[in-house]
Amino acid sequence: RRVHGDGVAMIAASCPALRSLGLSRCEDISDRGVAQLNFPHLLSLELSQCQQLTDLQAVPTRCPALQRLSLRGCGFLSEDMVMLTANSLPNLTHLDVSECNITNGALQLLQSTTLTELLMSKVQLITDDGVCALLQNVGPRLRRLNLSKSPLITGHVLAAVGQHCTALQHLHLKNCVVLADDCFVPMRANTAVLRSLKVSAGGHITSGLFATALGVCPALEILDVSETEIGNDFVASLPEFCPRLVRLRAKQCPNLTVNSKDVLSPLLRVLSNI
Asked: Is 188 exposed, middle or buried (0-12, 13-18, 19+ CB in 10 A)?
């Protein structure tokens, strides 16, 4: 946590072939430290919670091969700087801007043609309109989208997900309280490759999530429906709708009472398909 600018320079001099560098929560990492980056082969850079950062202009030139960039919780970075950096990395596939000060206007600036994973949890100011505009640009390539705990996101965003994110494998919408089964209907035609779905604390998610909205999800392996309104009939439907499920989280679901063999048997058959 005490790595500073000179420390980054020492790492660069000692490890010129470095592929991954994690500097999360390094309190002394500042713009000067970022300017000392010199890693032509670096693929992954983790700068989460580096609160002094305001300037990333050196990153694209100093780390030209970068594929993964995490800026989670870098609260003093301007949204323009974040988007400029992302757009200037020609190989970027993974971008984490969770807990950053990003607005709808900034989302429209993201033009990366290589991005496949976008994490935007706990982003306080983005809304459905901003995300929908963003997905028109980057949606067709996305494999992973995380909008969890972003308080202004509602089920309306799923229309854009269904329309543009045809290759999506991982969708996380935890604690997006304005969710209901019918919000997922627009996604029904694009669930063949969906591998993980997390909708815990999702407002009005019920046992009809698959039967009336998503339909069969043949590739789904991970499902989180904790703190929702699902019941025993939901468990009974899993073998039909999620034949490859290997991990289920259903904590604090008041309508779920898995206390009989008839309810548990279908679930155990599904979870044995590992």
From this structure: middle
CA neighbor of 175 nearest in space, from 155, 207, 209, 149: 149
User: What is the per-residue pLDDT for 27?
Assistant: 72
**How far apart (Å, rounded) are the C-alpha atoms in residues 62 and 134?**
27
Distances (CA, A) of 149 to 35, 128, 152, 177, 205: 33, 13, 9, 9, 16
Q: Which residues pair with 118 in a beta bridge?
A: 95, 145
**What distance in Å separates the CA atoms of residue 133 and residue 272, rounded to the nearest whole number?**
40
- The whole-number average pLDDT for the span 251-260 is 80
How far is residue 217's CA from residue 201's CA, in Å, rounded to a whole number?
21
Contact criterion met (CB below 8 Å) for 106 and 127? no
Nearest to 5 by CA among 33, 24, 31: 33
Handedness of CA 121, 123, 127, 129 (dihedral sign): negative
Edge-to-edge strand ranges of the sheet holding 196-198: 20-22, 44-46, 68-70, 94-96, 117-119, 144-146, 170-172, 196-198, 222-224, 247-249
d(CA 188, CA 244): 17
Task: Give the pLDDT confidence of 212-244 residue by residue, as tens digits.
Answer: 899 999 999 999 999 999 998 898 889 899 999
Q: What's the rounded Cα separation, in Å, for the pair 248 and 271?
A: 8
Give the span between the Cα atoms of 197 and 238, in whole angstroms: 14
Q: Summarize pLDDT for 173-214 with one digit per residue, the tens.
A: 999 878 899 999 999 988 999 999 999 998 889 999 999 899
Query: How many C-beta neighbours within 10 Å does residue 68 have?
Result: 18
Please say whether the beta carbons of 103 and 134 come within 8 A. no
- Six token digits for residue 171: 């969708």
